[in-house]
Amino acid sequence: xxxxxxxxxxxxxFSIVQIVIILLVFWFxxxxxxxxxxxxxxxxxxxxxxxLFFRYLSxxxxxxxxSNSPNSLEESITKTNYTPLGIAFDxxxxxxxxxxxxxxxxWEEKQQERTTFMxxxxxxxxxxxxxxxxxxxxxxDPRFESIAEETHRMRKGLEMALYTSRLDTFTEDYFVxxxxxxxxxxxxxxxxxxxxxxxxxxxxxxxxxGIKVRTDSKWLRxxxxxxxxxxxKYSAGTRERITITAxxxxxxxxxxxxxRGVGIPAADLPRVFLPFFTGENGRVFKESTGMGLxxxxxxxxxxxxxxxxxxxxxxxxxVRLIF
Length: 323
Prior knowledge:
Blueprint: H1 2-28, H2 34-67, H3 73-76, H4 84-136, H5 142-166, E1 177-180, H6 181-191, H7 193-198, E2 202-206, E3 212-215, H8 217-233, E4 241-249, E5 252-258, H9 279-284, H10 292-302, E6 306-312, E7 316-322
Parallel strand pairs: 2-4
Antiparallel strand pairs: 1-3, 4-5, 5-7, 6-7
Helix pairs in contact: 1-2, 4-5, 6-8, 8-10
């Protein structure tokens, strides 16, 4: 109704000015019968109101459509009335919608091509990495240890790239089932055993084998791997333990990973889940990308879990994953 009045306000204003001018012309011409003048003005007003009422009834759906935001793209092209202006507007909106769909399909196809290429490239790069790891396996040489450390970093980076590309198709790439929490943790700890040793920190797993959670095992391994990698990286050289525990809070199982590393400054804590945010520690640990916790947060949200971080500089960090 407000939009209708605003749209017709210039017409109403012009009509009032017009009738006033006509009445003044009659008045100055010597026609001083106020009763006739008033009756004419009344008839004019009735005609104006009737016209506006008819216009509102015939175009109320059109103005209502313009006043309210559509809940979907399809709703924006729904035909609402059959007035010439409404038909023209609906046709215009439908043409724009078809054009938008065409552009969207084009760029979705391009994005899919990039994702496919990225996935293939990551898998191809894993093969030479595996060959390098086999070559240096068991060799007692400091140079080979450095190569092993760098290949480990490369493998982590490739896995991060792969999981990042998979986020867009998350609903097609996960399966929820009841799994043993300690089994997932043991696998991740074993995969990172050389990383623990090279950084002089050691895992301490205190998880009851009876604790089971409903989640996707592959994505949970990714989450735990990212959290453990961060804990190791920011505890390197401390010769402290990284404690992994699980307990219940009400009916919710909680996985807790506690390190005794450098900790996170209080000013950085609210932003640790932002993409590419490395914070103060990122200036010290140059290999930080700022993507690990961002991806963890995205996956946790898609799995309908929760994540909490508490930290104190010089004391370490505690991360809790709530199922």
